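Standup notes, structure subgroup. Blocker cleared on the 6-O-phosphono-alpha-D-glucopyranose input:
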Amino acid sequence: MGRTLRFLVVLLAALGLLAGLGYAVLARITSRWFERDLELRSSLAVEAARDSLASHWSSDRAGLTAILANIARDERIMAAAACSSHGELLAATEGYPAEFPCRSLLERMRHQAGDATSWSMASDLAAGPVQVGVTLLEGDSEPLGAVVLVHDLRFLERREETTRNILLVAFFVLALGASVVTLLAARFAWRRWNLELRRALGGEATHEFQPLLRDVRALAERLSQEREQEGRAGVWSAERLHATLTKHLHDERIVILANREPYIHDRGAEGVRVLHPASGLVTALEPVMRACSGVWVAHGSGSADRDTVDGKDRVRVPPGEEAYVLRRVWLSEAEEQGYYYGFSNEGLWPLCHLAHARPVFRAEDWEHYVRVNRKFADAVCEEVEGDDPIVLVQDYHFALAPKMIRERLPRATIIAFWHIPWPNAERFGICPWREELLAGLLGASVVGFHTRQHCNNFVDGVDAFMESRIDREATAVVQGERRTLVRPYPISIEWPVHWLSEVPPVAQARAEVRAELGLAPDALVGVGIDRLDYTKGIEERLAAVDQLLLRYPEFRGRFTFLQVAAPSRTKIERYRELNERVEALAAEIDARWSTERYHPIVLLRTHHEPTAVYRYFRAADLCYVSSLHDGMNLVAKEFVAARDDEHGVLLLSQFTGAARDLTEALIVNPYDLRQASDALAAALHMPADEQRARMRSMRRLLSEFNVYRWAGRMLVDAAELRRKERMTGRFGAGRAAWGGESA
Ligand code: G6P
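Run returned:
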């Protein structure tokens, strides 16, 4: 706006200057025209009266005077006189100015106009400006003299004034028009330029691995909006998150409900050990809990979990640090089967991911899901302090818990975060318990997703299947007195990652890993690290490596892809099948390209602790994340975090939420094997300075967009909502409003 204003001021000043100059020139020209006009009128008037003037010239002075008076009847002629050729005044109308004696006029005319028969000059009288015109009058044989007409020029002043006014109005109209036209032209040109730019970028995007321009724009917009909002508060850190909690939520203790526990006590051959599960959710939330303290309520799934808790099923974690409490909830085998394997992972997981797996909905699974949600909701209510706690309910395992907690704690601030995609309404509609799921989540104060798209899908689902009002402006769902905000909060990782202090630096990690895998010290290594899940596109990834070796022979014998696949949900048939298929595919590719000393694929199907994972990231030349559909995917962000040497290339599926943040990765469609293999080749050929530029930019982004910001922003939004609700006194009616039966 400021720029437009400045531009208009300059434009108007320029136009004003031009108009001033134009007016001066125009004034000169028009006054010249008026003079000529007067001369012409003088000679015409004299010419018309020539005969009668001639007949009365020397003999009849009274007649001459009458003729002159007749000529002077023109309102613009002030006076007229007849002069003899010798300069004597023969006759004059009344009021002929004495300033213009015949003799001097004729002399001046002779002097200035030479042989011309008419001449005029301007002069000023007390009454105003005049123009004196002299026209010679010829008799039949000799010159008779001259007729002098004194023109009143005051009308000219009036005319000039009118002209000036018209010019002024014209100038303003012109200036306005010019400004509008210029602005429109500028806007049009800008849009065209944008279009050109887009086209140019679109052209580049056919150089396949560019991010979607839409995502880059959305990211830039988000960055600038958030920068503005954040002001000078600085980068989010564990300390800032804690300070936010203290400031906005008065240091309330946070209770997190998530199925997966951050620390699993497992009994092995060498006794009890602590495992860190492969879960993006845990990766993200654990640092948040360390920063905020509080309680994490989770399923106690480790074989030694029961042995390590106190009488109230609690254990302080992290071991040795004891920053917060882990409250374990025990599930029977049937409950785990129905709630976890059944409804959560055979029903909701495939329902929410576009990965060609058919969801299975069984009534008995649903019943377990309801019961287990209630069990966990009760555990949460046991852990809270006071009647208005902050509860963070995590993921698809607990869609019903927000409403169940709300029924018991109407004043609670409940934030539900859905870590996986949310399907469109049509797809979501196939779930037999769609209304119950939506009602359960709407018990939360805030429902969060990674992307705006998933928020929109959720709101569309509510619109399609629930009685409610959608406040699209505030992206909120309103049901009676209650309001649930629906917001995107893209999740991230801690920054800096605390594990990295225990991981060898890049050069050492490279050398160690190559030696361990029996590779040459200069071998090129790609890495993929996932749970063995059909949404991760592991088969497509291995097939892309196969294509690379087929289409780029220079990498045969030189490039090895290391796939770390942590076993996951192995009781589910679909996962067991995947395990077999991945194994068979890896063997097939290996058979095609391996030599005595070379293997194109190394498949490690065991759980790896975070330090081992980070060491692989540091050892690799590239990391390929090929998810077919993924809410966010934190592996991509972890790879970037590991590369403090600013080298290594990230290939990232366009179907991950992370592709919207990490736009400097090579963005690929994992189904397009030709494109993916080209991207692998491009990564392996990428010059070091390009790698550095891309990696540096992604690292800068992650250092700001870290998980403390994710949690902080949700908490700030929740706190604001809480303040508003308290102000409107809504809590009075809360318990009654939430007294109904839940699913
Ligand atoms: C995804 C889910 C998490 C889950 C993780 C591991 O990231 O969003 O909620 O913890 O997968 O799956 P698991 O079933 O082993 O917990």
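Discussed briefly. DSSP finds 25 helices and 23 strands in the chain.
Next: hand off to the docking folks.
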